[in-house]
Write a structure and sequence with these properties.
Helix content: 25-40%
Number of domains: 2
Number of strands: 14
Number of helices: 7
Strand order of the largest sheet: 2-3-4-1-5-6-11-12
Structural class: alpha+beta
Length: 330
């Protein structure tokens, strides 16, 4: 028996019901899930990958999601069309027996936040900046970071936001030495050093600042596998630098931010132990959060101790997790 990861993708091309192979895994469309509420370019996809007994549910889920990402890359290339991952439904066994408990992973852990009303004076500080000021670009990447559902892209845009400032403020240059004649010359600006300096001045440890530089390259240029340890590290680093990056931008612009704490959810996994009943329905025995979560905090000099930020999964009126009917095993 295999793990099955089910996702919904968007593609403006019809898909065959025949089996696709992606890195040796079986990928099939599920046209029976089409309904009148879906756009015509939405497709339900099942990925059958690792043996059920060989992988824990969280790492099986990551393998399934990564395979889905590779699949849509290939679809976009061959169709010359946009292709997006719309929704990750679940990872579960492909089928289960009545009365036997099993694990299912859903992707519905979300962060929500609120602040007081925004008034024109709150953003007036931007108008005092020259239109070519790099803080506009930095703020753009902060917005992208806070709007991204992927923790990898979240960290990447946070780093670009602070790197943009570091690049504009760097004065030292990289020193190069010829290994043969020992001639020395100045290389490009030492932007990494300037960026790390900005982070450490806002309370980020030197170790985390260096790791952020390293993992930024890995995210931007690829390389290395994805597993629970990777997402834990990326979430940890995003949590470590977010407060420093947002506080730095706010300080230089002259903003007073309307709340002090944020929330970063890594791969938003909720793992359930469930059982199939005699009547074909399913019951949940235990639910646990497996996603790494961090709550970064902004500097008191640029933020107000107001607003709220919460993380959780949707529940019914009895407090039980809400599971998409399509998430369950066949």
């Amino acid at each position: 028996m295999k793990w099955r990861t089910r996702v919904i993708i968007e593609l403006n091309s019809p898909l065959s019901t025949d089996e696709f192979l992606v890195q040796g895994y079986s990928v099939r469309t599920r046209p029976e899930y089409k309904n009148n509420q879906w756009p015509n370019n939405y497709h339900m996809i099942d990925i059958l990958h690792e043996d059920y007994k060989d992988k824990d549910p969280e790492n099986a889920h990551i393998i399934g999601v990564d395979t889905a990402s590779i699949f849509i890359d290939r679809l976009s290339a061959v169709t010359y069309n946009p292709c997006r991952l719309i929704h990750i439904v679940s990872t579960s066994p492909e089928h289960v027996e009545t009365g036997v408990s099993f694990n299912i992973v859903t992707h519905n852990l979300v962060a929500s936040s609120r602040t007081d009303e925004v008034i024109p004076e709150n953003i007036q500080a931007f108008e005092r900046l020259d239109k070519n000021n790099i803080l506009h670009e930095s703020s753009h990447h902060v917005r992208l970071a806070l709007s991204e559902s992927s923790v990898e892209q979240h960290l990447l845009h946070l780093y670009i936001a602070v790197e943009t400032i570091g690049t504009s403020e760097a004065t030292d240059r990289v020193k190069n030495t010829c290994p043969a004649c020992k001639h020395e010359w100045d290389g490009p600006l030492a932007t990494s050093s300037a960026t790390k300096s900005i982070l450490t001045k806002r309370g980020v440890s030197n170790k985390d600042a260096k790791k952020a530089v390293k993992i930024r390259g890995r995210i931007a240029h690829g390389g290395g596998g994805r597993n629970t340890d990777f997402y834990e590290e990326v979430t940890e680093l995003a949590g470590a630098i977010e407060g420093a990056v947002v506080s730095t931008v706010a300080e230089r612009v002259g903003l007073n931010i309307k709340k002090r704490r944020g929330a970063i959810v890594g791969l938003p996994m909720t793992t359930h132990e469930a059982v199939k009943n005699d009547d074909g329905t399913f019951s949940i025995n235990v639910t646990s959060w497996k996603a790494p979560i961090r709550f970064p905090e902004l500097g008191e000099d640029i933020s107000e101790p107001k607003g709220e930020c919460r993380v959780g999964c949707p529940t019914d009126e009895n407090g039980r997790p809400i599971i998409d009917p399509a998430a369950w095993p066949n």
